[in-house]
Write a structure and sequence with these properties.
By secondary structure, the chain is an alpha+beta fold. The protein has four helices and seven strands. Strands 1-6-7-2-5-4-3 form a seven-stranded antiparallel sheet. A hairpin with a 2-residue loop joins strand 6 and strand 7. It is globular.
């Protein structure tokens, strides 16, 4: 059973999300307690690679209220746990023009923090407008169907 902690709503607006992967996180000290509390921000976070390892940067996990001197740095660089083949595949895709990797959501599964990441391609302004039009049209259709029933 999954408990959703944080969603990056901006990701689906700014990017076309393609392949999705589940990654574990290497956490320190009071970070898991703060994540369970549920005030994590993925808004400005991004994934980078160093020597065949994946890292998430700028993910904000606030300090735990009762953590005293053992509290963690809020925006430290955290290592992602992925299979070697997945990292290799993602690195190859990122080298292509226009592709990036963005965090989509953070959730708890069986007590462990998991991060859903996606291979993404940036949207242009007209793509965003088309997405908004399609979403609005879908809403209108659903409203009309509800009124009929």
């Amino acid at each position: 059973m999954r408990k959703m902690i944080a969603m990056n709503r901006k990701a689906s607006h700014e990017y076309f999300l393609m392949d999705r992967y589940e990654a574990g996180l290497v956490l320190q000290g009071t970070e898991i307690k703060s994540i369970r509390k549920g005030s994590v921000q993925l808004k400005d976070a991004y994934i980078s690679f160093v020597d065949h390892e994946a890292f998430i940067k700028e993910m904000h996990i606030p300090p735990y209220d009762f953590g005293n001197r053992f509290n963690h740095d809020e925006t430290r660089i955290r290592k992602l746990l992925l299979h070697r083949e997945e990292i290799k595949k993602l690195q190859e895709k990122v080298k292509l023009k226009g592709f990036t990797i963005v965090p989509v959501s953070l959730y708890l599964e069986q007590g462990k923090a998991k991060l859903e990441i996606a291979l993404a391609k940036g949207k242009n302004l007209h793509d965003k407008r088309e997405s908004d039009k399609a979403r609005d049209a879908k809403r209108e259709i659903e409203k009309a169907l509800k009124k009929q029933i």
